[in-house]
Amino acid sequence: METNLPFSGRRKLLRAGFSLSALGLLGGCDLTDNDPVQKVLKSVSRWNDQVQAAIFNPNALAPEFAESQAVRDFRYNAWYGADLAPKLSASDYRLAVAGLASNKKPWTVEELYALPQVSQITRHVCVEGWSMIGKWSGTPLREFLTRIGADTTAKYVGFECADGYYESLDMPTAMHPQTLMAFRLSDQILPNKYGYPFKIRVPTKLGFKNPKFVTTIFVSNQQPRGFWTDRGYNWFSGI
What we know:
Elements: H1 7-26, H2 29-32, H3 35-55, E1 96-99, H4 109-113, E2 118-125, E3 131-140, H5 141-147, E4 156-161, E5 166-170, H6 171-174, E6 180-185, E7 188-189, E8 199-201, E9 214-220
Parallel strand pairs: 1-9
Antiparallel strand pairs: 2-3, 3-6, 4-5, 4-9, 6-7, 6-8
Helix pairs in contact: 1-3
């Protein structure tokens, strides 16, 4: 299914869908403890995911901004304090590749940073209600998927992280030209608290779909779980 909705129009529709499924989170235990209501809420969430996936245009770009608009002191955000962020060393780190890919060799930080890189100045939108513009630099994820011989006809790309986080993307989003393996923030090697050696930067998704401290990338036809999806949020979560 294709659509000619402009990007701004799609964002309004996606927000409406997300808000609908979020009603269950706002209702408290009386709702979530009621099995019939819980089933309805899950059904609505699945419907929202299907609608968002159907109207996603893999060629439509998220807005980009002037470098003067990029914030250098980017906001830290995680469910734990910055002092508890994993401290990964370049000498020990290896990115694992799994699933439907022909080349599963592990990647060192040096090898990752030698990949072709681009920059983007895009807005990070958090489900908590704040947003921030930052300059991110790194390798398009689709470039990496090509190099590992990923089956790009598969449905999903999943990520496992050093902090216990886990997330996944539909393949069209993974192959979107603005989806990056971000190695730098504000032209500096990605600081530890933001996900060194890299995070996945997805400007077409809400912030929790941008995993940090990635240690494994896998390709699958079975929909992977998501950390916050397991806690009630929409899986697709586009903006």
